Amino acid sequence: MDLQLTDRVVLVTGASRGLGAAMALRLAAEGALVVAAARSKDSLAEVAARGEGRISTIEADMRDHASVAGLVDEVVARHGRIDGLINNAGIAPAGKFVDQDPAIWQDALTVNVIAPMLLAQAAGAKMIEQGGGQIVNVASTTGIRGKPYLVAYSTSKGAVVRFTEALAAEWAAKQVQVNCIAPGAFVTDAQKAVTESAELLAKRVAKIPAGRMADPEEIVPLACLLVSPLSSFTTGAVFVVDGGESGKL
């Protein structure tokens, strides 16, 4: 299937590794012009080197509002437009709630909620001027069903889900689609503590009806579809990609 992504301009945050890198690389392979944003200059360069000349990079810290605010303008300066935005960058602070400093919550909300909001606001304004576009927010299954010891993360990702639904309804008539992907357990650097321990991995996999964790490549077809013109009547949806784990709970 031709996803009609050739020369469409897509900004992907958190694109230096894991799910973000996988999505950026597949989009480039499908013909999109990708701008990959993250904090790590070296890791971004490695992703760009694999992008067949269709990935450019921007160093950006989602904790820095000024840095975030300029991302969309930079994308438009480079390519003249922005057709898609994937809000993938995020942090997942873990720990006992009773012991957590409020600063941890501030950090989680800044990166996981405020930064995507600022980017959606800036990108959406350009998309409305252009006549349409697609925004994809990456949440988590913890935003669907909260998890112990991930209370701040669960709260922030729950906010991302509600943000997606509300914004989709507001912008549907403006031809801007806003959707959400809620991943479950994927094999990424963020999960090394689990994947490198046979005991922890066995416990984690036991909760997943599919009997395994997912490869980052298993999220990219959906992400590509959601930033494609083919998703023009899909908006406000939350797509859970977790091997059946949420349905089992």
Polypeptide structure, described:
The chain has ten helices and seven strands. The model has no long low-confidence stretch (mean pLDDT 94). α1 (18-29) packs across α9 (220-226) and α5 runs parallel beside α6 (151-171). The chain is globular and about 50 Å long. α2 (41-49) links the parallel β2 and β3 (55-59). It has a seven-stranded parallel β-sheet with strand order 3-2-1-4-5-6-7, sandwiched between helices. With 249 residues, the chain is α/β, with parallel strands linked by helices. The chain has two domains: 9-183 and 219-239, Rossmann fold (3-Layer(aba) Sandwich), CATH 3.40.50; 187-216, no CATH class. The protein starts with 8 loop residues before the first strand and ends with a helix.
Range of helix content: 40-55%
Silhouette: globular
> For this entry, what is the oligomeric state of its chains?
single chain
Q: Given the structure, what is the number of helices?
A: 10
In which order are the strands of the major sheet placed?
A: 3-2-1-4-5-6-7
Percentage of residues in strands: 15-25%
CATH architectural group of the largest domain:
3-Layer(aba) Sandwich
Task: State the end-to-end CA separation.
Answer: 35 Å
CATH superfamily of the largest domain: NAD(P)-binding Rossmann-like Domain
Quickly name the level 1 CATH class of the largest domain.
Alpha Beta
Biggest sheet, in brief? Answer: 7 strands, parallel
How many strands appear in the DSSP assignment? 7
The residue ranges in which pLDDT falls below 50 over 5 or more consecutive positions are: none
Output the radius of gyration.
17 Å
Give the H and E element order. EHEHEHHEHEHEHHHEH
Number of domains: 2
CATH topology of the largest domain: Rossmann fold
Q: How confident is the prediction overall: mean pLDDT?
A: 94
Alpha-beta classification? alpha/beta
